[in-house]
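Example protein as discussed:

>
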Amino acid sequence: MFLSVFDIFKIGIGPSSSHTMGPMVAAARFLDRLRASPFRAHGLRASLHGSLAFTGVGHATDRAVILGLAGFLPESYDADRAEAALATIRATRTVEPPDLPVLAFDPDKDLQFDYGPALAGHANGMILMATDAQGDVIAQETYFSIGGGFVVTEAELAAGPSAQSGPRVRFPFESAEAMLVMARESGLSIAMMKRANELTQRDEAALKAGLQRIWAVMNACIERGLTSDGILPGGLKVRRRAKAIHESLMAERGLNLTAPHVINDWMSTYAMAVNEENAAGGQVVTAPTNGAAGVMPAVIRYWLDHVPGASVDKVEDFLLTAAAIGGLIKHNASISGAECGCQAEVGSAAAMAAAGLCAVLGGTPEQVENAAEIALEHHLGMTCDPVKGLVQVPCIERNGLGAIKAVSAASLALRGDGQHFMPLDNCIEAMRQTGADMSEKYKETALGGLAVNVPNC
């Protein structure tokens, strides 16, 4: 199944692609259903289940659903307009989505958190309902937010990927093995094959503009994070640190007083800058999720700012290569922390970033595949245990360490010839199996791990 680079990298808002962006997208889909319905709705209701309930407040899922039902979308989100809309909705107990009548919706009564067992199908479930004038349900749909901002209905999930055939492309690889075979037979790089697939859906100008837009938003997010300080919202009183660390690194630059390993601090700071912005609800790019949004930008920025010979013209190849790897992981396992833990988020991001860096440093397709495998292998088993359900602890620092692992993986792969013991496909399958066996406590429910081992305040 073809996944576009623009499916893997989506421009949206923090703090979570699955818990913020996904529910907002689901609400938009439900509004579209109501617009096409011959029945006139008078009110709306929503219920959140599984991980969406357990960590929904910390991930701003309630805000996302309310705003989604009012017509807001992640890609065009305006924070000031959203705050004004929330105030109006709470005061009037109604929403006014475009091209629909004013609909009754009291957030305190009509948005329910169900802390019982998750819905069958996926840990991130939500049910949206429309009611008539008497309060009876006249339309209902179950949605699952499956990671990275992707949303499917209950019927779509049951049908499976095979029912979503997608468009025909020149290089329809669904495994890393097939990808390498096609690269050898065609003589093309992974980025070139991915580009050829994308050009079956859009012209060269649109592809270039879209890729440039992705990097521009990523880089702008780094810059905002490097110049912002203060306390992150949510109640943990976590301080932003990227700005102070960056200022310290800049002051030391050129003094020849620091150890070589300080380069790791640069990578960590770029990643932390992004994830502090994400935690604050800022604009980010899913890469492949919001919780892992800092890894890719940090590695690209490290490459551009610290590696001789780097060129911004090759960022497109970096993104295309990374998207090819991200698509394989999503298709064959998961990029959802609620489904497979943080190995599916930061682990996937590190694999993608390692592949992208290896490619722009001149790696062969075999070396690129090796880089991705090394990075993913050394995230296997990583749990998703956000304290208080917030994408802050351990998520912000974890992105920095993911970036460091990605660079190390790319470097190790480039020291070899691409031949290695564990194929990427097997590693992806191991991640899927590990996620299936992992206790629900460690899959974005904030019921285990660091989330329940916090200091008394």
